[in-house]
Design a protein that fits this description.
Length: 220
């Protein structure tokens, strides 16, 4: 009888141990190390890249004014670039600055719906800017090799065109992740980095429009 009791106790002990082993994975949730708030490494890297890129822009602007000061007529006589397309691009850039910031703000509030809408609007506005700048090329009436003004015209607008296309593609990527629910209140570092780059892209346009159109006299 004692042996039976001991066997039963041993069986109960092994069953309890087995139950404990089976319940262990569900009782203790292992939190991944990456589940905490984002570190701003991506944004810092973006700022460093922007600083280097701005030096390139500053060098082109300095070369532009050096050539302009040494020219008797700037732009050359007969060149009239107009202000309609630059005005459209400027208005669109201002609108895109609000929409991309709306996407970041919504991501910080864990509002995936509005974040996706804001980023979607930014993509549309970015494509509109790229289309308008391409239209400026086709309607300029001169080529990149016709004169120095034409060279800088295509160089500076093309510089911004490359940036706005790249920024728009980046917004498409983060918008796709927003739809998939990858961002939250504490985890939205990619959105912040892309927003910083998009704002810089708009700043590039304001420099370009000031240099090419506001500080240059147009001859009819």
């Amino acid at each position: 009888m004692a042996a039976v009791t001991a066997t039963a106790r041993a069986g109960d002990g092994s069953t309890a141990a087995a139950d404990e082993q089976l319940s262990l994975p569900s009782a203790e949730r292992v939190v991944p190390a990456s589940a905490g708030p984002d570190t701003p490494t991506t944004s810092l890297g973006t700022l460093l890249m922007i600083a280097a890129d701005f030096m390139v822009l500053a060098a082109m602007v300095a070369a532009y004014f050096a050539v302009k000061d040494g020219s008797a007529s700037w732009p050359p006589k007969g060149v009239s670039v107009g202000t309609y397309i630059p005005t459209i691009v400027t208005i669109t850039a201002i609108m895109s600055a609000f929409s991309v910031q709306w996407g970041l703000y919504s991501s910080r509030r864990n509002d995936q719906r509005n974040a996706t809408i804001g980023m979607g609007m930014t993509v549309v506005l970015g494509l509109a800017m790229a289309n308008a700048e391409w239209l400026a090329f086709t309607r300029s009436g001169f080529s990149v090799a016709d004169h120095a003004y034409g060279t800088f015209y295509y160089l500076l607008i093309g510089f911004h065109l490359v940036h706005v296309v790249a920024a728009t593609l980046l917004v498409v990527l983060v918008a796709g992740r927003a739809v998939a629910g990858h961002f939250s209140r504490d985890r939205h570092e990619p959105v912040r980095a892309v927003t910083i780059f998009f704002h810089y892209t708009n700043a590039v346009w304001f420099v370009v429009v000031t240099v090419l159109f506001l500080l240059s006299k147009n001859h009819a």
